[in-house]
């Protein structure tokens, strides 16, 4: 590990930072391991057109730490890791040679890091990697796509937040805004619409918004740059991170923030500011843990058990309620409570 990385603002005692570059295929990125104290590290692979290597490293450091915390509070015996691949742009497809080169980088950490699908990675990419390296999770032959499970865990996290705020977990008549209609956001919208919620939806891809209008009769499309301003019961960021900033925080009009996007807070301080404003914030790594719970279930010595995954996802409702209650009782933000609980488990 480069000694200078230890001075990076997002460095948090990470165990390993592996930078790689393959000139022939254009493969460039980082494999980052935050912790293996509880077991091998797990975390998805993100393929994204970062503006610089430092931006990519920043993302990998933040996401791998969040994965450690997610594992701790989800009750699984794994640590946190992440891989980010620096895409040349948003359109260039991954070649077979590119994926093969990446798979050989993964072979170097096969005993300490398991990875799977994340932003920019498709199921076919995962299947191709699995042919070369054994540390792939979420292949079709095993746990499969984690997206529906991430959506389900957010659904139960929302129920926990509503139980805390309203003394009822019913979605009937609730107004819910979702930013990002990828596989997780769209499935979450379906779950909520089926329960009687009124939806306000946003995505930069017009195909996704048009598809949503066809599927959901109680849906209104809102520009992505305006969706966080909607006066709703719940705002669900389901796209990329750093959704709550100094600017957007003062424009949020939702009573509850609970979504699937990783690292929704620009800094932990923004969680404290939400608490001071009386907005209930559900820590993202607690809410979106369903995808993780599903894919690591295939590593269980007894084999993958769908019912066990479902029960753990349902349990997130009680975890969220407990965090929010402790937050209220101690007059500190929910993200402070969840971070403290995670660190206590990791130590």
Walk me through this protein's architecture.
This protein is α/β, with parallel strands linked by helices and 347 residues long. It has two domains: 3-66 and 78-130, Rossmann fold (3-Layer(aba) Sandwich), CATH 3.40.50.10860; 147-346, 3-Layer(aba) Sandwich (Rossmann fold), CATH 3.40.50.720. Helices cover 41% and strands 15% of the residues. The chain is built from twelve helices and twelve strands. It has helices spanning 53-74, 96-107, 123-130, 147-166, 183-194, 206-215, 268-277, 284-287, 290-296, 306-314, 316-330, 334-346; strands at 16-22, 27-33, 41-42, 45-48, 79-86, 113-114, 175-179, 198-202, 219-221, 234-237, 256-257, 280-281. The strands form two sheets. Strands 1, 2, 3, 4, 5 and 6 form a six-stranded mixed sheet that branches. It has a six-stranded parallel sheet with strand order 9-8-7-10-11-12, sandwiched between helices. A hairpin with a 4-residue loop joins strand 1 and strand 2. Helix 4 packs across helix 9, helix 4 (147-166) packs across helix 11 (316-330) and helix 11 (316-330) packs across helix 12 (334-346). The longest helix has 22 residues, at 53-74. The two termini are 22 Å apart. The mean pLDDT is 94.
């Amino acid at each position: 590990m480069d000694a200078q990385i230890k001075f990076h603002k997002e460095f948090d005692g990470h165990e390993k930072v592996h930078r790689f570059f393959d000139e022939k295929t254009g493969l460039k990125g980082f494999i980052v391991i935050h912790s293996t104290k509880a077991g091998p590290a797990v975390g998805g692979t993100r393929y994204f057109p970062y503006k610089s290597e430092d931006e990519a490293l920043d993302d990998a450091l933040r996401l791998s730490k969040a994965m450690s915390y997610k594992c701790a509070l989800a009750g699984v015996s794994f640590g946190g890791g992440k891989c980010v691949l620096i895409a040349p742009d948003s359109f260039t497809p991954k070649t077979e040679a590119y994926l093969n080169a990446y798979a050989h980088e993964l072979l170097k950490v096969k005993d300490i890091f398991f990875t799977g699908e994340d932003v920019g990675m498709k199921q076919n990419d995962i299947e191709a990697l699995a042919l070369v390296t054994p540390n792939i999770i979420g292949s079709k032959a095993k746990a499969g796509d984690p997206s529906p499970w991430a959506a389900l865990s957010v659904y139960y996290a929302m129920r926990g937040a509503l139980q805390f705020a309203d003394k009822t977990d019913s979605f009937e008549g609730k107004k819910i805004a979702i930013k990002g209609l990828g596989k997780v956001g769209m499935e979450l919208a379906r779950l909520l619409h089926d329960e009687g919620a009124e939806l306000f939806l946003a995505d930069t891809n017009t195909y996704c918004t048009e598809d949503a209008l066809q599927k959901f009769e109680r849906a209104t499309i809102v520009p992505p740059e305006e969706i966080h301003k909607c006066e709703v019961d719940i705002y669900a960021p389901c796209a990329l991170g750093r959704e709550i900033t100094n600017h957007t925080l003062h424009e949020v009009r939702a009573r509850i923030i609970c979504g699937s996007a990783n690292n929704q807070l620009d800094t932990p301080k923004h969680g404290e500011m939400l608490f001071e404003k009386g907005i209930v914030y559900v820590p993202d790594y607690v809410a979106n843990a369903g995808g993780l719970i599903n894919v690591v279930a295939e590593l269980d010595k007894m084999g993958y058990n769908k019912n066990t995954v479902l029960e753990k996802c349902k349990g997130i409702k009680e975890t969220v309620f407990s965090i929010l209650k402790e937050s209220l009782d101690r007059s500190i933000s929910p993200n402070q409570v969840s971070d403290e609980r995670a660190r206590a488990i990791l130590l």
